[in-house]
Design a protein that fits this description.
Layout lengths: L13 E6 L8 H10 L7 E5 L2 H9 L4 E4 L1
Antiparallel strand pairs: 1-2, 1-3
Helix pairs in contact: 1-2
């Protein structure tokens, strides 16, 4: 049987997300999304895999974060 071809870790794309605005005063769901991304304080940066799930979370809080690839 042939083995499934797996992507090497270097081949996976990542995205760096920075919290630029506080989620206080916005919808509670958006604060939950910011927390689930792993952002804690303003100017805190997190690097995550560039997946559709991550992109969906970024889209939900796009007014609170900046994204660099």
């Amino acid at each position: 049987m042939a083995k499934a071809k797996q992507a090497k870790p270097a081949d996976k794309k990542t995205v760096t997300i920075t919290l630029t605005k506080s989620p206080i005063g916005f919808n509670k769901n958006q604060a939950t999304v910011v927390q689930s991304i792993g952002l804690r304080k303003i100017n805190h940066q997190v690097t995550l895999a560039d997946t559709p799930e991550t992109r969906g979370m970024i889209f939900k809080v796009r007014h609170l974060v900046t994204v660099s690839e």
